[in-house]
Design goal:
Layout (H helix, E strand, L loop, with lengths): L7 E3 L2 E4 L1 E5 L5 E3 L3 H8 L6 H6 L5 E2 L6 E2 L4 H10 L8 H13 L7 H27 L20 H6 L5 H13 L3 H14 L5 H7 L22 E3 L25 E5 L1 H4 L6 E3 L1 E4 L1 E2 L4 E7 L2 E7 L7 E14 L4 E11 L4 E10 L2 E9 L14 H17 L6 H10 L15
Parallel strand pairs: 7-9
Antiparallel strand pairs: 1-2, 2-3, 3-4, 5-6, 8-10, 8-17, 11-12, 12-13, 13-14, 14-15, 15-16, 16-17
């Protein structure tokens, strides 16, 4: 079957007849089976007969110097992607990860990659059928032996047979001759132009089909609750730039939320400041294998929050819990608490801080910064996460220095009455 559709890309994968993993630098590799990887990584367990059968596990050198015993680094990186393991461009490290999974009998294709492969296959085959059908319908008729166009011979016989009971061989030849004579050179030239144009663009019926209106049974989405307008004039700052590159992006399902910087709208916090201009609110998440970390600086409050589990999918009903620790600059007081974040979509979130402003929760919404530049690739370590871990571990020690007597707290509150920002309610006591 001839192929017309281009490869379908998504994240680190592309599909064209089979699924390929993109290891970088335009190096694409299909998935090697567990048996093939076993023959490469553990040749001692493969008997001599199996070695003769699986000759495809060996390849030729690019220079043609003969057979080599190993594949290049991008082959092993692609296999890590295919099996949902943490990718690396170090060939030895990649082989060790595959071998560890193989020895532990955990080398298998994750379910989300299987679903992704099915979606890409369905999309690619559908586009391939459309393009083949369009190319076939707009094809140029070929000349027959008699010099006439073969396309003129493709006449409908069903309609003629319904109106004709018996036709002699002479009548058939006369009819076909008349139809051949009825084909003008202008019509054939028009067909040739359509043939050339179909190579560069998709035909109009495809566009109409893709832009079809949704069925009437589907109800339009209900509008969200109105969000209060901002109470202050924001001053931009660069806090959202301080986050680590997502080293685990290839392990996340396609529609799962990804750690990224968010611009936050928080009327509850904005109402507490008398200042007309304060820096904008940002959350810039950095991810570990189990948690998401982010700094926040809202007016006089500055601290760190930790999402206590990875958000696997969009969910408007169930929030991801987080814990926070912060310092209140004006009162030199520290506090901590909890909260929840709801991932309404892959690019929008809403959440609430508990014990942040006296008795009421502090609600906020945030939208991902789509044009945010990627942080620099760090070969070793995660400097932003490492610094946040250090500060988080030091915060309980710092909290012991916070005022513990009621009189001391009241005195500080009286000294800061000119500011409308309240102290943190959840104070750490010794």
């Amino acid at each position: 079957m001839a192929t017309f559709a281009p490869p379908v890309h998504r994240d680190k994968f592309l599909y064209s007849s089979i699924l390929y993993a993109d290891a970088g630098n335009d190096n694409h590799h299909p998935r090697a089976s567990v048996a093939e990887l076993t023959a490469l990584l553990r040749p001692e367990v493969v008997n001599s007969k199996a070695k003769k059968i699986k000759t495809q596990t060996k390849t030729q050198c690019p220079e043609g110097d003969g057979e080599v015993k190993d594949w290049p680094w991008h082959f092993w990186t692609a296999q890590l992607l295919h099996y949902g393991l943490t990718a690396t461009k170090d060939k030895n490290a990649a082989k060790v990860r595959l071998l560890s999974a193989l020895n532990g009998e955990k080398l298998e294709v994750p379910g989300w990659i299987q679903r992704l492969e099915g979606e890409l296959k369905k999309e690619w085959e559908a586009e391939n059928r459309k393009l083949k059908k369009a190319a076939k319908g707009d094809g140029v008729p070929k000349l027959g032996k008699s010099g006439e166009l073969d396309g003129s011979k493709n006449v409908s016989t069903k309609k003629a047979s319904a109106n004709t009971v018996a036709v002699s061989g002479k009548a058939k030849s006369t009819t076909s001759k008349r139809k051949r004579d009825g084909v003008s050179p202008l019509e054939s030239s028009k067909k040739a132009k359509v043939k050339n144009a179909s190579k560069d663009m998709v035909s109009s019926p495809l566009t109409k089909k893709n832009s079809a209106k949704p069925p009437a049974s589907q109800k339009p989405p209900s509008p969200e609750e109105p969000w209060p307008a901002s109470y202050r004039k924001a001053v931009a700052h660069d806090a959202w730039k301080f986050y680590d590159v997502d080293h685990l992006a290839h392990t996340r399902p396609p529609n799962a939320p990804h750690p990224r910087p968010y611009r936050v709208s928080c009327p509850d916090a904005e109402m507490e400041w008398e200042q007309k201009t304060i820096p904008e609110f940002y959350l810039a998440f950095s991810a570990t294998e189990d948690e998401w970390w982010s700094r926040f600086k809202w007016g006089a409050f500055e601290g760190i929050l930790i999402l206590q589990r990875q958000p696997k999918r969009v969910n408007k009903a169930i929030g991801v819990p987080f814990k926070w620790r912060a310092n209140y600059a004006f009162g030199n007081e520290d506090g901590d608490g909890e909260g929840k974040i709801f991932f309404d979509s892959a690019s929008t979130i809403r959440g609430e801080f508990h014990n942040f402003f006296r008795e009421k929760p502090c609600h906020f919404r945030a939208e991902a910064i789509q044009s945010a530049p990627q942080p620099p690739q760090i070969s070793q370590g995660t400097p932003v996460l490492d610094q946040m871990r250090i500060e988080w571990s030091q915060m309980p020690t710092t909290m012991h220095d916070a005022p513990t007597k009621k009189s001391a707290r009241v005195k500080k509150e009286n000294n800061s009455q000119t500011l409308s920002s309240p102290p943190l309610r959840n104070l750490t006591s010794t």
